[in-house]
Amino acid sequence: MANSPQAKKRAKQAEKRRNHNASLRSMVRTYIKNVVKAIEAKDLEKAQSAYTAAVPVIDRMADKGIIPKNKAARHKSRLNAHIKAMATAA
Protein backbone atom coordinates (compact mmCIF):
# COMPACT_ATOMS: atom_id res chain seq x y z
CA MET A 1 0.00 0.00 0.00
CA ALA A 2 1.04 3.60 -0.58
CA ASN A 3 3.06 5.20 2.20
CA SER A 4 3.88 8.73 1.12
CA PRO A 5 1.12 11.35 0.99
CA GLN A 6 1.61 11.76 -2.78
CA ALA A 7 1.30 8.01 -3.35
CA LYS A 8 -1.82 7.86 -1.19
CA LYS A 9 -3.39 10.68 -3.17
CA ARG A 10 -2.48 9.07 -6.50
CA ALA A 11 -3.98 5.77 -5.34
CA LYS A 12 -7.19 7.56 -4.38
CA GLN A 13 -7.29 9.39 -7.73
CA ALA A 14 -6.62 6.17 -9.65
CA GLU A 15 -9.50 4.41 -7.90
CA LYS A 16 -11.85 7.32 -8.58
CA ARG A 17 -10.83 7.39 -12.27
CA ARG A 18 -11.19 3.59 -12.54
CA ASN A 19 -14.76 3.77 -11.22
CA HIS A 20 -15.60 6.60 -13.63
CA ASN A 21 -14.14 4.74 -16.60
CA ALA A 22 -16.03 1.58 -15.62
CA SER A 23 -19.25 3.57 -15.60
CA LEU A 24 -18.56 4.96 -19.07
CA ARG A 25 -17.66 1.51 -20.43
CA SER A 26 -20.91 0.17 -19.01
CA MET A 27 -22.84 2.97 -20.73
CA VAL A 28 -21.32 2.06 -24.10
CA ARG A 29 -22.24 -1.59 -23.62
CA THR A 30 -25.81 -0.61 -22.77
CA TYR A 31 -26.18 1.44 -25.96
CA ILE A 32 -24.76 -1.42 -28.03
CA LYS A 33 -27.06 -3.89 -26.29
CA ASN A 34 -30.09 -1.72 -27.13
CA VAL A 35 -29.20 -1.91 -30.83
CA VAL A 36 -28.63 -5.67 -30.66
CA LYS A 37 -31.99 -6.22 -28.92
CA ALA A 38 -33.79 -4.22 -31.60
CA ILE A 39 -32.02 -6.20 -34.33
CA GLU A 40 -32.95 -9.52 -32.70
CA ALA A 41 -36.55 -8.33 -32.39
CA LYS A 42 -36.48 -7.60 -36.15
CA ASP A 43 -37.65 -4.03 -35.46
CA LEU A 44 -35.97 -1.97 -38.17
CA GLU A 45 -37.14 1.48 -37.02
CA LYS A 46 -36.15 0.86 -33.42
CA ALA A 47 -32.79 -0.60 -34.50
CA GLN A 48 -32.03 2.43 -36.66
CA SER A 49 -32.93 4.90 -33.92
CA ALA A 50 -30.93 2.94 -31.33
CA TYR A 51 -27.95 2.83 -33.72
CA THR A 52 -28.22 6.58 -34.35
CA ALA A 53 -28.16 7.16 -30.58
CA ALA A 54 -25.28 4.72 -30.03
CA VAL A 55 -22.83 6.02 -32.64
CA PRO A 56 -21.97 9.35 -30.96
CA VAL A 57 -21.59 7.61 -27.59
CA ILE A 58 -19.27 4.97 -29.06
CA ASP A 59 -17.21 7.67 -30.82
CA ARG A 60 -16.97 9.80 -27.68
CA MET A 61 -15.73 6.88 -25.59
CA ALA A 62 -13.16 6.01 -28.27
CA ASP A 63 -11.92 9.60 -28.28
CA LYS A 64 -11.58 9.53 -24.49
CA GLY A 65 -9.64 6.27 -24.66
CA ILE A 66 -12.25 4.28 -22.75
CA ILE A 67 -12.38 1.80 -25.64
CA PRO A 68 -9.85 1.48 -28.48
CA LYS A 69 -10.67 3.28 -31.74
CA ASN A 70 -10.61 0.04 -33.74
CA LYS A 71 -13.05 -1.60 -31.34
CA ALA A 72 -15.41 1.35 -31.75
CA ALA A 73 -15.13 1.12 -35.54
CA ARG A 74 -15.71 -2.64 -35.44
CA HIS A 75 -18.86 -2.30 -33.32
CA LYS A 76 -20.29 0.44 -35.54
CA SER A 77 -19.51 -1.50 -38.71
CA ARG A 78 -21.04 -4.76 -37.54
CA LEU A 79 -24.17 -3.15 -36.11
CA ASN A 80 -24.67 -1.13 -39.28
CA ALA A 81 -24.20 -4.25 -41.42
CA HIS A 82 -26.92 -6.06 -39.45
CA ILE A 83 -29.29 -3.12 -39.85
CA LYS A 84 -28.63 -2.87 -43.59
CA ALA A 85 -29.23 -6.61 -43.96
CA MET A 86 -32.55 -6.21 -42.15
CA ALA A 87 -33.50 -3.32 -44.43
CA THR A 88 -32.77 -5.26 -47.61
CA ALA A 89 -34.59 -8.35 -46.32
CA ALA A 90 -37.71 -6.31 -45.57
UniProtKB/TrEMBL annotation:
<keyword id="KW-0689">Ribosomal protein</keyword>
<dbReference type="InterPro" id="IPR036510">
    <property type="entry name" value="Ribosomal_bS20_sf"/>
</dbReference>
<comment type="function">
    <text>Binds directly to 16S ribosomal RNA.</text>
</comment>
<keyword id="KW-0699">rRNA-binding</keyword>
<keyword id="KW-0687">Ribonucleoprotein</keyword>
<feature type="region of interest" description="Disordered">
    <location>
        <begin position="1"/>
        <end position="25"/>
    </location>
</feature>
<dbReference type="InterPro" id="IPR002583">
    <property type="entry name" value="Ribosomal_bS20"/>
</dbReference>
<feature type="compositionally biased region" description="Basic residues">
    <location>
        <begin position="7"/>
        <end position="20"/>
    </location>
</feature>
<dbReference type="GO" id="GO:0070181">
    <property type="term" value="F:small ribosomal subunit rRNA binding"/>
</dbReference>
<dbReference type="GO" id="GO:0005829">
    <property type="term" value="C:cytosol"/>
</dbReference>
<dbReference type="Pfam" id="PF01649">
    <property type="entry name" value="Ribosomal_S20p"/>
</dbReference>
<dbReference type="GO" id="GO:0006412">
    <property type="term" value="P:translation"/>
</dbReference>
<keyword id="KW-0694">RNA-binding</keyword>
<dbReference type="GO" id="GO:0003735">
    <property type="term" value="F:structural constituent of ribosome"/>
</dbReference>
<dbReference type="GO" id="GO:0015935">
    <property type="term" value="C:small ribosomal subunit"/>
</dbReference>
<protein>
    <recommendedName>
        <fullName>Small ribosomal subunit protein bS20</fullName>
    </recommendedName>
</protein>
<comment type="similarity">
    <text>Belongs to the bacterial ribosomal protein bS20 family.</text>
</comment>
